[in-house]
Specification:
Largest sheet: 3 strands, antiparallel
Order of helices and strands: EEHEHHHHHHHHHHHHHH
Number of helices: 15
Low-confidence stretches: 1-7, 56-60
């Protein structure tokens, strides 16, 4: 079968199979002629072929980790129901609203139809299917238990996505409120304070020190506003550049975040939960421990833990027990080390790792909920100080004038 290449598009088709049964599906191809050729090779006589048009309301061109999680669950469910792999791809693709995700699924389907294994087909898209995903699928194919391994992958993806959303929620909410507070303060300084300044010039009296300071700040912002915006934009751009491209910078940032009050413990528990969940999934799939730790390191979501887990892997590769190597890393609480030790001794490392993951995932859920309750009054206090301070500063001269009268 011809392999779809970059720039190909999804085509909807209808036809009849060798038994005369009407069927329909979706294929990824460069043109209609390629679709017809591919269908003929499969023994399908096409009666209708049309290029799928992208709906104005359909999903955009970006594939998220959530899309991959949903795809994993859908594929696992269909294989468990006995649906052939290629047909499962067609069903999942036709039901997806994201055009980019449809294209990815159909590209994988085309490779599988061309004779590649599912693991090989997924490995061609490393941006969406990491080594952990590919290794687990490969283990499932080799063991003849692809449906059960995909079920484990789907569960793993869903749980890791849930914990990532919790962390994003914990970080996004206060950041968004602070940005709004900054914007409101800037608007007051630029547009509102000057009106009061014109009013105060007719008083003929000295202004309170606090009011004078706010007026001077307003003048400074209005005079140098463009430079302030340029500096902030440059700082944000530099931060994003180094965050994406500099591993030492991310290592430094992750280390600082782990030590930060309030949010640090949540990030630490999240990394431990990911470590335990990934280890449990890989070990249950029959992946050797040293090889599993390679994938576990990248799944922790924190470079400090990633480096630490790679060190654990090196110690385990020389014959050291996993529990001892974890203790030597200094990254894990004693409870985690002891549960891993019990798992090693009883031969149920996957089960004990899963219990550790369950405990810390629930702990992260509770911590994020408590954090939200704690931050709300703090954020209100910050807003009150910023906005209320400006209002008080502007009304102080009026109160002073009223007292004189």
């Amino acid at each position: 079968m011809a392999t779809a290449v970059a720039g190909s598009s999804p085509f909807l088709w209808e036809g009849t199979d060798r038994n005369g049964k009407k069927i329909k599906g979706k294929s990824l191809a460069n043109d209609e002629a390629q679709v017809r050729a591919d269908l003929r090779r499969r023994g399908v006589v096409p009666t209708r072929i049309k290029k799928q048009r992208k709906s104005f309301f359909s999903g955009g061109g970006k594939i998220t980790s959530g899309d991959i999680s949903i795809f994993s669950r859908q594929l696992a469910t269909m294989l468990a129901a006995g649906i052939p792999l290629v047909q499962a791809f067609e069903i999942v693709a036709s039901g997806h609203e994201n055009a980019a995700m449809q294209k990815l699924i159909l590209a994988v389907k085309a490779d599988v139809e061309g004779g590649s294994s599912l693991a090989e087909s997924l490995a061609k898209h490393p941006l969406y299917f990491d080594d952990l995903f590919v290794n687990l699928v490969e283990s499932g194919e080799q063991a003849g238990a692809l449906d059960s391994l995909l079920e484990k992958i789907a569960t793993y993806k869903e749980k890791t996505e849930a914990i990532k959303k919790k962390i994003k929620k914990a970080l996004t909410y206060p950041a968004a409120v602070l940005v709004v507070a900054f914007v409101v303060t800037a608007i007051l300084l630029i547009f509102v304070i000057p009106s009061f300044e014109d009013l105060f010039q007719g008083f003929g009296a000295d202004l309170p020190t606090f009011t004078r300071m706010i007026i001077d700040l307003s003048l400074f912002v209005r005079t140098n506003g463009i430079y302030i915006v340029m500096i902030i934009s440059a700082a944000v751009s530099a931060f994003m550049y180094f965050f994406k491209r500099s591993r030492p910078f991310r290592h430094f940032l992750d280390r600082i975040m782990l030590k930060a009050p309030i949010i640090g413990p949540i990030l630490e528990k999240s990394a431990i939960a990911r470590y335990a969940r990934t280890l449990s999934t890989m070990f249950a799939a029959g992946v050797p421990l040293v090889e599993a730790l390679e994938s576990v390191a990248g799944a922790t979501g924190n470079i400090v833990f990633e480096v630490g887990v790679l060190g654990i892997r090196d110690e385990v590769a020389t014959g050291q027990r996993l529990q001892t190597a974890m203790e030597n890393s200094g990254l894990f609480p004693n409870m985690v080390n002891q549960m891993i030790a019990v798992g090693e001794e009883s031969g149920s490392l996957d089960d004990m790792s899963g219990k550790v993951a369950d405990f810390y995932e629930e702990d992260v859920d509770n911590a994020v909920d408590n954090l939200s309750s704690l931050l709300e009054p703090m954020i209100m206090a910050i807003l009150g100080v910023l906005v209320g301070g400006l209002v008080v500063a502007m009304y102080l001269p009026i109160f002073k004038l009223g007292a004189v009268v």
